[in-house]
Amino acid sequence: MAFEDLLEDPVIQKYLHELVGPKGMPVAAAPPDGEVTDEELAEDLDLELNDVRRALFILYENDLASYRRLRDEDSGWLTYLWTFEYDNIPENLESEMYRLHEALEQRQEYERNHEFYLCEICSIRFEFGEAMDFGFECPECGSPLESMDNDRLVTAMEDRLTALEDELNIDTDVDVDA
Question: Which domains, from first to last, does the chain contain?
């Protein structure tokens, strides 16, 4: 998929924005063809050199950019020539989805296996043990802690997990006889 096609996708735009932040987004959104130096990018995009370098290294850490070093024979200075590797974006997004799925499964299990109490004044949630330690009174305002029903939260997580499983083609049917 070409850079232009990838960058038109709002999911990919959001992913890049989450990686490099608002200051790095011009770098991520304007990948040049071929190699480019950080100084050239900073000048072309009218950005601070440190912001460009930060974005490039974040892209590098996420396998979305690579570089090669050249040493100037006379001065000994190193020049970094950067290449953008956006072909890896779909694979990275899929990995992120698997991580999200695993985190949601763990959180859903936590929500199912714990009993919670809520201070309705402060909107602070406590596990049963914490609530018991505080005598079922909010340590902030002294209001009584009320038992909290988190079924809607667990159901929302279940719906999100199902959607992720459909997207990732995860088979959740477990053979009980095995």
Answer: 1-84 (1.10.10.10), 91-168 (no CATH)
